[in-house]
Amino acid sequence: MEIPKMKKRRTKGQAQEIRQAWLFLAPAIIVVSIFFVLAIAFAVYLSFNDVNLYSSTYTFKGFDNYLRMFQDKKALIALKNTATFAFVVVPLQTLFALVIAYILSSKGIKGKKMFRMVYFLPTLTSSSALTIIFMFIFNVYGPINEFFMCLGLYNEPINFLQEPAYALKVIMVMNIWSTVPYYMTIYLASLVDLPSSLYEAASVDGATAIDKLRYITIPYLRPITTYVLLTGIIGTFQMFDQAYIFSNGSGGPNNSTLTISLMIYQYAFGQMNTMGYAAALAIVLAIIIFMASRLAEKLNGGR
């Protein structure tokens, strides 16, 4: 005979605690609803309309703004540049951060604290300031050209800032250089907590340094690597300020530094009656970021 389950009744104290919890959560829920949920809903609404900001008129266009992307060569170029930027920067910054953190976690290296402090300084500097510094470094008469010409690698300086073949690569180098210290610190904090007994047991079994890295360190750091990959993908796909400063908002030279985020800005605030198209681009970018993040998570062993 099956015994019927008794429903648990909440006591007055439990009910009061629940009401107090909702009361404390209410401000956060209101803020998130206004600035996140409602903002996304409004962006989706805009993406299906032609919007005139001056007269505040909305003309329903259905999926026209989304279909326009496949006919817009500029959008395809921006998507290609953004994807190239992400697929180059994210793996390299993750690899360099892991290698440097692994070296610094080794025993017997002097000056590690000083190196960590100095190496972390680029992370504290604004990306706008770093962009201006790198524009000076890679200028026609900048240190990079002077250095390579002194080595005799080429006779005439290269205009890295105005050559489509080099412009995006300069931003890639800058982004990798400025983000590696941050991710290195995250990896380093995790390596400090890694039990030394695992390495000792592996040494008894005759494991080499490569074996320890492959079978102990990397699997132990998998959750951290997932975090690094996800934040790296989100950051690179949203790259805007470096490209804007580098090209003065144009995405040049010859659209070589044009990204999806910069293009959204151009259509949203640089042209008339294209806010709806900009919203559609933003929705598509959000979907791409979500899909790329899920793919990276699965490839790294996530669920």
UniProtKB/TrEMBL annotation:
CDD domains: TM_PBP2. The chain crosses the membrane at residues 21-48, 83-105, 117-144, 164-184, 220-240, 275-296. SUPFAM superfamilies: MetI-like (SSF161098). GO terms for cellular component: plasma membrane. It comes from Enterococcus termitis. It is found in: Cell membrane. InterPro entries: ABC_transporter_permease, MetI-like, MetI-like_sf. Gene3D superfamilies: MetI-like. The keyword Membrane applies. One of its GO terms (biological process) is transmembrane transport. It comes from the Bacteria. The keyword Glycosyltransferase does not apply. Pfam families: BPD_transp_1 (PF00528). Residues 79-296 form the ABC transmembrane type-1 domain. It is a multi-pass membrane protein. Keywords: Cell membrane, Membrane, Transmembrane, Transmembrane helix, Transport. This is Sugar ABC transporter permease. Coiled coil: none annotated. Belongs to the binding-protein-dependent transport system permease family.
